[in-house]
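dumping this here before i forget
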Amino acid sequence: MLLAVMLTTGCSGTKVTSKSSAQAGKYQVHNIVLIPFETLATPQAIDTSGPSFPVLSGVRRSDVAPTFPPTTDQFVRRTHLVPPDAGEKITDLMWAKLKAKPGLHVMSPQEAIGAARDLSGGAASAETIPAHKIAQRLKADAALSGKVLVYQERVGSRLGADPPAAVGFEVKLVAPDGMVLWEGNYYEKQRPMTEDILGFVQRYGTFVTAEELAAYGASELADAFPFGGEADEGK
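structure:
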């Protein structure tokens, strides 16, 4: 429900949405830990009539994926599994972008994995331990986790692709007390110039790869991240 609201309050159109909690201003966040992103394991419906995440019967959507009006099966052409390594790729992209923000220290995904092992006695991965517990363990101000919902590579070249690349992922920042401070979402299926003039110009008039779309999404979400930045350097 929260991400459905984000669609109307997003900072960068429908491709990138961002929403901070009303309580976020009460927290000082300078030191965060980045938890490795999960990769959605169930099939996702793709190549639909709009930039949404509709599903066929028996196909799960993310529990916190954006909510859209129901889409009937007649509009859906196929389903697609997210590659297992997509989570690692986007985790690395987000880490690189967030580390570059002044006034913000980002603890590595490896540190999150180590904390999860300590908390579980070595029996669990970082994705299965609540984010706020990892923040507590590492004495971080907050923990950032994420989930990759869509990661479809283009079929074709820069001059033409059918289907084009599509990437979608979500992020959540949680304080050690469990308060969700911020959530962001990125979804883009590259469109031809007749359908998305701005996006096509941003891609220099070419069809890009899924990794290039993911890098764009990571950069935009890092820019939307409400902590760090010039204003926080002297705090």
